[in-house]
Amino acid sequence: MTQTTQHTPDVTARQADPFPVKGMDAVVFAVGNAKQAAHYYSTAFGMQLVAYSGPENGSRETASYVLESGSARFVFTSVIKPATDWGRFLAQHVAEHGDGVIDLAIEVPDARAAYAYATAHGARSVAEPYELKDEHGTVVLAAIATYGETRHTLVERTGYDGPYLPGYVAAQPLVESGERFFQAVDHCVGNVELGRMNEWVDFYHKVMGFTNMKEFVGDDIATEYSALMSKVVADGTLKVKFPINEPALAKKKSQIDEYLEFYGGAGVQHIALNTNDIVQTVRRMRAAGVEFLDTPDAYYDTLGEWVGDTRVPVDTLRELKILADRDEDGYLLQIFTKPVQDRPTVFFELIERHGSMGFGKGNFKALFEAIEREQERRGNL
C-alpha cells in the first residue's frame, strides 16, 4: 500500500494555485419529492430550511429547498412538470437512479477563470459562465461534468448576500430548530466503474490541480468476500476532498458493485459530515429515526489497546456503535448511516476529528463487514 499525506500549503502556495477554491458550496440532490426530503433532513439531520424556489415565486417547472447546518448546504430539487431540457433531465435522473446527488457545487473566487482553466485542461463543459442577478447582488456560475451524470457547478458569490441564489427567496425553518448536529461537509465520495478510478483521479489532477491525499489499495479495504480500491484527491487547502472508489475483484459482490447496479452507474456514494459532538449527534439522529450500521461488540474488546485514549470512553463508543481510528496526526471518531432511500445507494458518514486527517483506515475491515451484513439481508452480497 502507498499512503501519502498532503499538508496545508502556505499562503504563497495557495495564491499560486491554478484552480483556487473556497470550499464546498452545496450538495445538490435530484429527488422525487423535494418537500418531503426537506422535512426529513430537517427532522432527522437537524438542518434548517433557509431558501426556497417554486411556483409561488416563479419557478413553474421545479421546486427546490435549500437546507443548511453550519457551512454544510444541501439543495433538494424535484420536478413539478417537465418543460425544458433541465426539467426532463431531472425527471429522467430520478427515474433511472432514484434520489441521488447530481451536483457537487464548489465555491471559487473567480468562476470564469476556474471554468477556463478546467475546460482548457480537458473538462467537458456543462454550462458556460453566466450571471444571475437580483436585489441581493450577482452570482457567477459555470458547470463542468465529472463521473456519471454528476457535475461540478463553479460558484462565485462574493458579490451576493442573498439566502442562496437569485431566484430563491428566504424561507423559515420547517421545524423548531435546536443545536445543530453537524457543521460542515468533510468529504464527498464517488463510486466509479471497475478500472476507472485512476482515470478520474487523473481528471482531478489535470482539470482542478488537485493532488493525491491518501491511497488505499490491495488488502487495505478487503474482507473474505469483497474488496474495493480508493484514492483521495483534494485541493491544496484540503477544504474540498473527493475520495474515488472502484470495486476490486473478490469472491462476492462488493458495496461498490451493489451501488453501481442499483444507481445505474457511477455517482456520489456518501457524504461525510463534520460534527463536534458525535455522541449527541448520533443519539439525536437515532431518536429521529436514522438507522446506522451495526458494529459487533468484539470490535470494542481490543479497541483501547491500539486507538488509545479518546474524548469518548470505549463503553460509550460500544453503546452507540461508533468507530475510532488513530494515525500519526491524531484520532477520529466516525459512524455510517444505512442508505437513506429505498435503493441501497446514498448514505452518510458522521466524523469527529481530533488531529487526524485520515479516513478511518483501521476501521475499513469492520465497516466493510457491517455493510456486507446489510447486503446479505437485502440479498445483494
From TrEMBL:
CDD domains: HPPD_C_like (cd07250), HPPD_N_like (cd08342). Belongs to the 4HPPD family. It comes from Streptomyces mexicanus. Coiled coil: none annotated. Its cofactor is Fe cation. This is 4-hydroxyphenylpyruvate dioxygenase. Residues 23-157, 184-338 form the VOC domain. It comes from the Bacteria. Binds 1 Fe cation per subunit.
